[in-house]
Design goal:
The N and C termini lie far apart (about 55 Å). The chain is globular. The relative contact order is 0.12. By secondary structure, the protein is of the alpha+beta class. The strands form 2 sheets. A two-stranded antiparallel sheet has the order 1-4. It has a two-stranded antiparallel ribbon with strand order 2-3.
Length: about 120
């Protein structure tokens, strides 16, 4: 929690108040989430938990650890590892991420011939 409080001041200069200038700006619009839960919306596990977020300009890169990915979504909390000043944000893509085991299992079982 202490580190989170420090980040409020540390990241203040990167806040993007104009959502139209941000690549994820449409996340603020309810219509963008007809088929999935809206980020910052109510948690089904803890209705009282504050899940609000602020858009930051995509100028910083950080390395995170994560447990599970489903499609293009981190399914459990990502844990901050370190800042990566050596990386350009545009070089960070989904392609560089390791394939999550459940995704691989899904592919294996969907192609399984032994069920015939």
């Amino acid at each position: 929690m202490g580190r989170r409080k420090e980040l409020v001041d540390e990241l203040a200069a990167y806040r993007e108040p104009d959502a139209s200038k941000h690549p994820w700006g449409e996340w603020h619009e309810l219509d963008a989430h007809e088929e999935q839960r809206m980020p910052g919306g109510a948690s089904r596990w803890n209705a009282g938990k504050d899940l609000s977020f602020e858009l930051l300009r995509p100028e910083l890169v950080c390395e995170v650890a994560y447990d599970h990915m489903q499609g293009d979504r981190l399914r459990h909390a990502a844990t901050f590892r370190r800042w990566r000043p050596d990386r350009d944000p545009k070089s960070c893509t989904y392609e560089q991420m390791e394939t999550a085991v459940p995704e691989e299992l899904s592919r294996v079982f969907s192609e399984a011939k032994f069920l015939k």
